[in-house]
Amino acid sequence: MYEDLQGKTAIVTGSSKGIGKAIAERFGKEKMNVVVNYHSDPSGAEETIETIKQNGGQAVAVEADVSSEAGIEALMDTALQQFGTLDVMVNNSGFNGAEAMPHEMSLEDWQKVIDVNVTGTFMGAKAALKHMMKHNIKGNVLNISSVHQQIPRPLNVQYSTSKGGMKLMTETLALNYADKGIRVNALAPGTIATESNDDLQEEEHKQVQLKKIPMKTFGKPEEVAAAAAWLVSEEASYVTGTTLFVDGGMTLYPSQLE
């Protein structure tokens, strides 16, 4: 646990399930105030809130589309109304998109991924940074990227492009605000056992994926959450503009050598 996080306020987008849920729940263990965001899963958001409160934190849920300015404003307004400030912004909401050869991909399929993963992350960061600058808060922005900011993802050019964009967005924002005491970092998970990866239950697909992971096991959402808590704590006070890979060595990609 990180004592400096106690009582601080965080927004975690897309926190009704998966990695976002685990991060929000870990923040509850740190006794933080958490704005839980969901788009279409109110029951999942309520479960997250209940766990946060059981862990010792405070929480409130907000339905919002983070690819819209109105959605981001709703999250910020709630954080300020309920808890008075914002110290940590976690841009976790992400969308994979449909698989397709690039020459057959519709502009709509491309744009939807870019809107959520890139534009949504930018708007979330912008809103948080504006508040932190106005109130001289030495806060944190944490963007949840993917190993696919480094490893191209076949049939998902829109997803790989979005995550590559998040990498340089993170680095550029970190450069712009480092002298203000605001840290901006990213987490890049590998293959994590979440609801969105339920096809890992199929043995054939599972074995194919495991070949790409030197540790020969899938990650747990809680392991990503532990890294998130460290990055936004004072234990990581001299870390900004970096991407921390939580991937069991997947970016080493040994299967490419077989």
UniProtKB/TrEMBL annotation:
Highest taxon of source: Bacteria
Pfam families linked to this entry: adh_short_C2 (PF13561)
PROSITE patterns (alphabetical): ADH_SHORT
Listed SUPFAM superfamilies: NAD(P)-binding Rossmann-fold domains
Recorded family membership: Belongs to the short-chain dehydrogenases/reductases (SDR) family.
NCBIfam families (UniProt xref): PRK07231.1, PRK12826.1-2
Annotated protein name in UniProt: Dehydrogenase
Lineage: Bacteria, Bacillati, Bacillota, Bacilli, Bacillales
